[in-house]
Design goal:
Blueprint lengths: L9 E5 L9 E2 L1 E3 L2 E3 L7 E9 L2 E3 L7 E3 L5 E7 L11
Antiparallel strand pairs: 1-2, 1-5, 3-4, 5-6, 5-8, 7-8
């Protein structure tokens, strides 16, 4: 994920980890925040958390509202697909 060069903490949370905002913490590689994760096949809702602010994935136009009317980024992983790269 490019951007947010002055951020202190960038994390990933979603339906795949019960929206735990402290489980998947990104590392900085050059000018990108990177975290590699293998997701099970299926549809996954997620957001990035940058210094406590929950953000949609700017590189993914696919979104949907949850049961509370909150918009989340969505990715679909198929059994035969390469693992997607999520990042800011």
């Amino acid at each position: 994920m490019k951007g947010y060069p002055d951020a202190s903490i960038v994390a990933l949370a979603g339906s795949f980890n019960n929206w735990n905002q402290s489980q998947f913490i990104f590392g900085k590689e050059g000018d990108e925040w990177v975290y590699r994760i293998d997701l099970e096949p299926g549809k996954h809702a997620y957001k990035f958390i940058v210094d406590g602010n929950w953000l949609l994935d700017p590189a993914n136009p696919n979104t949907e509202d949850d049961d509370y009317g909150v918009k989340n980024s969505v990715i679909v992983v198929t059994k035969d697909s390469d693992q997607p790269r999520l990042g800011l």
